[in-house]
Amino acid sequence: MKEGAEKEPNDRLDRRKFITGAAALALVRPEKAESSEISFNILPSNLSEQRLELQKSVAIASLTKDIPNDPKFGYLRSHVSHLEQESQMYIPSRVELGSVIEKGRGAINELASHIQVGRYGLFAYADANEKEKSRAQRLYVLKRNDGNEIEFVKGYRVSMSESGFGNDKDSGKTPLGIHSIEGGRRGLFGEVVSGLNKHRDMFNHFVVGGKDRWFVKSFGERPAGEQSSDVAEVVTDQYLLKGPNTDVARGIRIHGTNRSGALNADGTWRSFLGGIRRSGGCIRMSNVDVRDLSLSGYIAPPQSVDINGDMHGIHTPVMIFATETGQSAIHFPEDESSHPKRWVHPTETPQAAAAEEAKIEEAVQTQKTEHPKRWISPNK
User: Is 43 helix (H, G, I), strand (E, B) or coil?
Assistant: First the structure.
């Protein structure tokens, strides 16, 4: 039976039954390993499709608000109509999560031990088979609801290293294991937020708000003759990772990209995320999705922001996991990556549903007129 073919009431009524079998993980927290063992229950997402669409709309409105009202930014505005297609956020199905948990249970255990109650962690999943670059690649948001419950809140299709996975310095590979977000920067839509010193001639230079800023020249396919460099693709927002075997100098980031996809000849969108590995070691997301990480509260607030707008001391835990070479790969059919229709409780009336829709529309309109709160340096 397909995931969407389940009876709708059972999708919510049996949610906690998901903790049994392959989805039940035993976790020993490092600081309490000698005295107690905590059994973590892994639950599927409780996020509704309505809430997901609201979060997407708010992120898109934030990016649109970022674009200065000036004709020279017209090429950025022309891409706005594609932001809905560019976003790759979704609610993972039980079929998908069952496979991911079965293969990555040890890594999920370790990540869970670093998530505080009520907070979030990020789980990057990929397949390490070097013979085929087209493999499932996801970034999942995990929330620790209480002392022994972890929820897979949301998924994003992402793209990791073209060279595969490994912790060797200067390998160009995506590192594995537990990491922490040590810092980052939230820029304007399409703004280059890393690696400007050696590559400024590759970007458009504009003065915005009295400050020099650099923006990518295009979105979609790389124009013929353009210099090939991953630096050009660290745009909009970025978060710097640090791990036991990953120094910050290695420059591994979760970031937005101007190469998230392109239009086909028939006008349909072809995503570059979720399938073929394309990066130089980083985790690429769509601009909508990387903005959603902060707006939805999945990235912890920074401890400080310097005069350049760089954030420091975020400390959100991130686990990067890949199946071993030769292990059977997980391919996610689109019908399994989409969440089944949200079950509506019998007591939820059409009037209540209409009221929820009104709240969503009001939130979107508010986001369009009010710029989201930004982190301001204490020195300003």
Answer: strand
